[in-house]
Amino acid sequence: TKLFPSIIAIVAILSSPLSTSASKEILQKTERNKTFDDGDGLFNFKREKRLPLDIVVFEPAFRSNSVTLILPGRHLDPADYQTTIDLLLSMYQTVVFFPTIADDDEYASSVPLAFDQYIEKAPRFHSEYSLLGHSYGAKISLMVASDYDPLRVVKVIALDPVDMNPPRFTNPYNATVTNINLSLTDLSSDILMTLTDGGGTIDPNHQADTIIAMNPTLWLHKDFNASHLAYCDPNPGVKGSLILKFMRRAMFPKKDGDGLALANAHKLIQEHF
To answer: What is the pLDDT of residues 81-135, one digit of tens each?
Structure first.
């Protein structure tokens, strides 16, 4: 039996000031009871949605030492990262799960606002936070640490970042253009990245090793023979249709090293966060 503290999961109803006036007027709420059952019944919580953002907050029952925002891959939800959320909660960390927004800059600029609104509604004397990103969310976590909230982001783990559409860190050198890439050097944030075999539509020229080549002082861990979805729990759920779920698995089939990659990610979290 896993030994975790009792968990109380609360919901932060967070709406972005960046939204249009029309979006601000959308006050319809969708309340859903959902259970993440890890065998111990630890994850019974109410999830409340207010457009345009849908943010879920998990808190340890007794105390919260720090805050970590999880920025996931596209179309992935908390169930896909359940064991990772378990781990962070067992470390007495508040977890703010922030699903993706399609536009890079809107997503990155909303992250510090989400933290601000969380601590306003549930003050715990937190003045800084960490970021755990995966795939597209890993790219956004690097953008936040580099450009959108560099003074308050203290630690970043970017799991297999995909820097595409458009690239922000891996544009080829261009002698006629200055500052073509965001820099990750000389930041106050402690940043590390991981790299898998990628696959699917991921361009190998826009993965973590290329980001490291542009920022050689950063630390990179390579997970060999691991798929891009290795950091998700087995058989991850996907929002939307079964066709979408099938297509994602077709693009990123499981590999023998997936289990070890997830274990390595959890070890990095324990050591780094």
So the answer is: 999 999 999 999 988 899 999 999 999 999 999 898 788 777 666 789 999 999 9
Between the alpha carbon of residue 268 and those of residues 38, 191, 220, 222, the distances in Å are 22, 11, 11, 12
pLDDT, one tens digit per residue, over 147-161 is 999 999 999 999 999
- What is the C-alpha to C-alpha distance for residues 265 and 125, in angstroms, rounded to an integer? 28
Q: Are 94 and 157 in contact (CB under 8 A)?
A: no
Question: Is residue 184 a contact partner of residue 146, using CB atoms and an 8 Å limit?
Answer: yes
**CA–CA distance, 26 with 73 (Å, rounded to integer):** 26
Q: Is the peptide bond before 60 cis (omega within 30 degrees of 0)?
A: no
Q: Quick one: tokens of 133?
A: 């990103």
Q: How far apart are CA 68 and CA 272, in angstroms?
A: 12
* pTM of the model as a whole: 0.80
Contacts with 125 (C-beta within 8 Å, 6 or more apart), sequence order: none
Place of tokens 């800084």: 128
pLDDT bin (cut points 50, 70, 90) of residue 42 is very low
